[in-house]
Amino acid sequence: xxxxxETAAEPDLRNPxxxxxxxxxxxxxxxxxxxxxxxxxxxxxxxxxxxVIAAFARGTGPVAVDAERASGYRYGQxxxxxxxxxxxxxxxxxxxxxxxxxxxxxxxxxxxxxxxxAATQDLPCLREIGMVPTRLFDTELAGRLAGFPRVGLxxxxxxxxxxxxxKGHSAVDxxxxxxxxxxxxxxxxxxxxxxxxxxxxxxxxxxxxxxxWARQEFDAIASAPPAPPRKDPWRRTSGMHKVRRRRxxxxxxxxxxxxxxxxxRRDVSPGKVLSDTAIVEAALAVPxxxxxxxxxxxxxxRMGRRQLEQWQQTIDRAKALPDSELPQPGAAVTGPPPxxxxxxxxxxxxxxxxxxxxxxxxxxxxxxxxQENLITPDTVRRVCWEPPKDATREAxxxxxxxxxxxxxxxxxxxxxxxxxxxVTAAT
Length: 427
Hints:
- By secondary structure, this protein is of the alpha/beta class.
- The protein folds into 3 domains: about 5-225, 2-Layer Sandwich (Nucleotidyltransferase, domain 5), CATH 3.30.420; about 235-325, DNA polymerase, domain 1, CATH 1.10.150.80; about 340-425, HRDC domain (DNA polymerase, domain 1).
- It contains 20 helices and 8 strands.
- The protein has helices at about 5-10, 45-60, 105-110, 120-130, 140-145, 155-160, 180-190, 195-205, 210-225, 245-265, 270-275, 275-285, 290-295, 305-320, 340-345, 345-365, 370-375, 375-385, 395-400, 405-425; strands at about 30, 40-45, 60-70, 80-85, 90-95, 115, 135-140, 165.
- A 6-stranded mixed sheet has the order 2-5-4-3-6-7, with helices on both faces.
- The protein is flat.
- It starts with a helix and ends with a helix.
- This is 3'-5' exonuclease.
């Protein structure tokens, strides 16, 4: 780094609106072109990994962590590169293909605070390779709570620290080997300033009186168990809302499952095997034969005869299913019905929801944060649909907590919901 860059590396926190705290003059961000110690070598052997583990165990303070996946190219969401940075250890780029078990690295960092940006996106793939934090700081979530209008990493680094990160490699195929140098530079820069960003955001959250709120949010993320497998994932096929008949839904299900098996076997993204659009078009058309299938979008001239025959056989299986094995029109509803139907089903509940939404919206605006971070819309719906029999503030607070609301959320929102429930009960 140059002297100017070293000076600029000191956190120069700006207002969430983008204006400098002590100056009304906008300054151009400084391009961050190279990691301060250069691009670290890719760690892909046991011996090199042992050196990294030892270095990071000796390091001090929080550790910045990031992971790169090959979404849209490979099956699943596994990590293909892990980036780390820590005071006293510098930066490291670890290849989980060459080093698939990083539990030793995770153990070396046990008890340390991990800094991640959008932690819930990276934690599942990190968990797969043995890296599970017990404490974390999520810079994206911190930005949301602090009221920043743009919370992508590049936008946050620019508005908070005054640096412009390189763009353009976030959506590349990170399973490529060897990884090109520009990609490695991009990856190393992603953790270059995470510690600085964390420190600046902590100060801003403290200034706004939200630091304890953020800590509760981070603790909730770190302690959350792995998400269970999604039930009937085929129902999330893009365009599924067009499919109305049970036989057509069976075609979607059979094609989706066949595509998933092929994608897993080939280790490619399911969309590269067959698009969602093609699946839905086939379900709507219910083609009689290969010739009829071949003229549908997604099954055109690029697809060979053998592939077309395989997809047609899958469709024919769905067509031959007895009615008892056809899927039901909708997924099982475990919560309240869609709010648009409340006015007809339960006008009082609709009135409660309207009052609650207005109150939550006003408070979120006052606190300068997104409504969904103040309290999830689903939680508000559940409390309004089935309020406590005795809707006291204590009872409402207990109801919110039972749905997973953090203590700070309960304290902020329970008075509003109590008032909304009381007003609508009296009308």
